[in-house]
Amino acid sequence: MTSTTATNIPPPLEATPAPYYSYWGDPGETPGADVPTEEATAENTNDDSPMQCGTCTDIDDEEAKKYECAVCFEFMDTPVGCGSCQTRFCRPCLERVASQGGTRPKCSHCRAPFTLESIQVDEALQEEMNNCMETVLCPFRGCGKRVPIHAIKLHEAQCDHIKMKCKFNEWGCEWIGKKLDLEHHDNHECEFRNEMGRLVNTIREKTLNQTETIARLQGTRVNQMVNTHTRQLLMIRGRNAGNVFDVLAMSYEATCFPGRLAAAKEMWGNMIGHDHPRALAYNVLLVLPLFVCISKCSFWMAIDLSNMAPKHIYRVGLYGMIQHFHVNIVTSSAAGLAVFCLIADGGDATHWTEMHVQGTGISYPFLRDIVALGFYVCYFLFVDFMDYWPGIVLLICTFSFTVTYSSCVASILEKVNGSEEGTLKKTRMWPSVVFALRYACLFQVCWVPFEAVKGVIVLRLVKHLSLKHFKLNFTVEETECFLSVIPPSILVALGAAVTALDHVAIGNGVVKDWSAAFYAWGTGAAILAFLNVFTHTLFLCGQGTGDAIYFE
Q1: Cα–Cα distance between 172 and 197 in angstroms, integer?
Q2: HSE-up of 525 (CA within 13 Å, CB side)?
């Protein structure tokens, strides 16, 4: 920290009036010993008590008392009252009583409550004092002047015989003398008049600079704290569960610093304090990996376009450009359709809006299935965009990360908020995203699309049978979307149609024999069953990881 170059100079020291007992000198000193006139000496020596406001001469004591303050017992400059009694005070004395009396100050004479606003000036007494020409003797020994009552205050402030303390009294000089002797003391007698005085001034300057530096640092610290709290307040108010960066920041806090998230839960109240924003945050976590993949496809498409020469674009034509970028175009179109359906659906973040088909009495969330198919197309074509094996590996990694990380964050937030478990599966995006991931993996792993279709038919029929007999669960039922409402009769009809196609394929030599055809049925069903079990396992692993992170 650099020191300030400018030095603040404190105000010069000034002498201050000594206490009233100093007007009489030391104890045992004969009062009035230094009064120059015999009359003043006689009057001063007849009073053995400390002077108050002056010794009355032309005015008797009883008449003088009505001009005295009931607090300081000096002659009043501006007589005021509390408004409840006839006792009069100096304005500064009564205002001091009011300021020191707390919330309900009381009059020092009648004990009645009063306020600064209730203080009233006694104008009649003020006028009487101004017109009174009776005089009193100056209280300062050696002066001997007689002054009218209304001018005694002004005279006391200017009298040269008032006793003063040296301006270095607080630093050790014990001199007390008359005001007219003060200059001689400062110039010839005071031990602080030379080096000691300069040392005192240096100490005062450094003390003043240090005090101002401390005050400035404290003010800077206070401003920093205020700014920090203001930013935190703005962040709290501005956090939105639909904002990708806010969701990522919240998920980072949940997985890396769950204790800090629980301690500062109010800071994230707009995102995790209620079911709707929490479900919206889960939806963002589920969809985000997909849109990262779509962004990668769009980015490379833009790179390819920028590298193409205009002549080449003109030569291949529109059809050639569409054929070259068909994967990117279809992927972007499917993503756009899914986004349009998300916007068109007016449902909550926890469910899809069911549409009513007129005349049939059927209510069904059609937009959910369209979004699921759109996501499926995006994931499926992403594998083609990346080449087969890199695409398969990246798809499985995306599958694992999406389910595991989302369930881990959901598990931690359930512990932080004390809410029920399984809230992730009640969100709007869970069925669509998991459907797309599972069936994109299925149709990419199965070299022949009919194998995947056969696997779907087999598992759906097994599911219908298990409800009554075996109680098997090889499906992720909450993510089956439209497949869960296909009746068994339709499935049997589809199976018969696929068998007929197998017969045609065997006759044409596409399929070797019936054993190979039935092997395809088993292969597709096994792969889909594995993917369903894999989904269950990923979800449980995410929950277990979230529990371990939170309780650690």
Answers
A1: 11
A2: 16
SS3 80: strand
Tell me the sheet residues that pair with 178: 163
Query: Side-chain half-sphere of 377: how many Cα atoms within 13 Å?
Result: 18
Q: Are 161 and 178 in contact (CB under 8 A)?
A: yes
CA dihedral 264, 265, 268, 272 (to 10 degrees): 160
Q: Which 3 state secondary structure label does DSSP give 177?
A: strand
Q: What is the DSSP letter of 107?
A: -
Compute how many other C-beta atoms are within 10 angstroms of the C-beta atom of residue 419. 15
In the chain, what is the straight-line distance between the N-terminal and C-terminal CA atoms, in Å? 42
Task: Tell me which H or E stretch contains 137.
Answer: strand 135-137
Q: Does residue 59 sit in helix, strand or coil?
A: coil
The residue among 441, 466, 437, 456 whose CA lies nearest residue 520 is 456
- Reduce the secondary structure of 9-53 to three states and give it as a string: CCCCCCCEECCHHHHHCCCCCCCCCCCCCHHHHHHHHCCCCCCCC
Both tokens assigned to 66: 């009505």
Nearby residues of 50 by Cβ (< 8 Å), 6 or more positions away: 20, 21, 23, 24
443 contacts 493 by C-beta, under 8 angstroms:
no
Give the count of beta carbons closer than 10 Å to the beta carbon of residue 422: 14
Amino acid sitting at position 119: I
β-bridge mates for residue 355, sequence order: 364
Q: Which residues contact 469 (CB under 8 A, 6 or more apart)?
A: none
Q: How far apart are the C-alpha atoms of 282 and 428, rounded to whole Å?
A: 9
State the number of CA atoms in the 13 A half-sphere of 206 facing the CB: 5
pLDDT in tens, the chain (552 residues): 444 445 667 777 777 777 654 444 444 343 333 444 434 433 443 333 333 444 444 666 677 788 888 888 888 888 999 888 889 998 888 888 888 877 788 888 888 888 888 888 988 888 888 888 788 888 788 888 888 887 888 888 888 888 888 888 888 888 888 888 888 888 888 888 888 888 888 888 888 888 888 888 888 888 888 878 776 665 656 577 778 888 888 889 888 888 888 877 777 777 777 888 888 899 999 999 999 999 888 888 888 888 887 877 788 887 888 888 888 889 999 999 999 998 888 778 888 988 887 777 788 999 999 999 999 999 999 998 888 889 999 999 999 999 999 999 999 998 888 778 888 998 999 999 999 999 999 999 987 777 888 888 888 888 877 655 444 556 788 899 999 889 889 988 988 888 888 776 666 765 566 777 777 788 888 999 999 999 999 999 999 999 898 876
Helix (H) / strand (E) element for 56: namely strand 55-56
Q: Which two tokens stand for residue 370?
A: 């369209």
Q: Compute how many other C-beta atoms are within 10 angstroms of the C-beta atom of residue 65.
A: 11
Q: Is the separation of the CB atoms in 341 and 371 below 8 Å?
A: yes
Angle at 483 between CA 479 and CA 487, to 5 degrees: 135
What is the pTM for the complete model shown? 0.59
